[in-house]
Amino acid sequence: MSTVVHHIPQHRIPADLPHRVAEPTLPSIGLWWPSLDRELKRRVVADLRAPLPVEVVEHARRVGGLVGHARGRLRLGANDLAYVEAWQRTCDFK
User: Does residue 10 carry a pLDDT above 80?
Assistant: First the structure.
């Protein structure tokens, strides 16, 4: 088996690459959901398909160690939705 390595010119790699996220993204929901404020959880659960409130995105990025602001409105992905739905069944959150 061989590995293909693409050469990226050094001038195109940002100095702080490990801390930068090029596109709107969130860390794993298992990292930030447990510490999310109860009222913010209620807002998310009220409409799981809606864009996430800015406060939720900021919390998730802060907990995940991501710097800067996410551009655009973020929504929960399929795995995130499954996590929240399982969490709701487990704790009977209302």
Answer: no
